[in-house]
Amino acid sequence: MFLSALKKTLPVMGTYVTLGIGFGMLLEKNGFGTGWALAMSVFIYAGAMQYVAAGLLALDVSLLTAAFLTFTVNVRHFFYGISMIGRYRECGKAKPYLYFALTDETYSLVCTDDVPKGVDRKRYYLLLSALDQLYWICGCVAGSLLGSARAFDSTGIEFSMTALFVIVFLEQWIGRKDHGPALMGLGISALCLLLFGGDTFLIPTMIFTAAGLTLYRKRAQREEAR
Fold this sequence. Notes:
By secondary structure, the chain is an all-alpha fold. Helices cover 75% and strands 0% of the residues. It has two domains: 156 residues, no CATH class; 51 residues. α2 packs antiparallel against α8 and α10 runs antiparallel to α11. The protein is globular and about 60 Å long. The model has no long low-confidence stretch (mean pLDDT 81).
């Protein structure tokens, strides 16, 4: 069972270790050491939000702003959890961790429903989730250690967060035929940047984008019902 789960998660390992190294180096550059990288990857384990958190820690933003950004960036995980209620119903004591560990990639692996024959489904889900988080932890800690090395030049590592979101955007653009939501997000972001400036445009952008997507979805549902 372990070998099956390991084979299944190998693609995730390549992604998580690489991105984790980038996060650990960015965190170290902002003045937070390996202990922070380890604690955040163990107790937060939020991928893109950890990149955002590294900047928030460096800027010393308010708790309200940090909480709002965390909610908007990770709100999709709420819906991940809802969709897993039936699948995780009989997972017992492991259930809280399984919900906690539902990253985008782990969610995709679990949803394939490709459990090897003769393997306990609950233990298999737990292994998939634990291995994926282990990859992320190793990457974050390794990146922090690399970033703390005096001879290592980490110039430009702060761009890794921007690159991460660009990749996510491109993957969603390629994977969907309807580009309306993406174009809406780009338009609202540009407009809010002009209206509110670079320092304060993010929260208005999130609010207007959420409202716009809600209206867009309702319109799409009405058209499908016709």
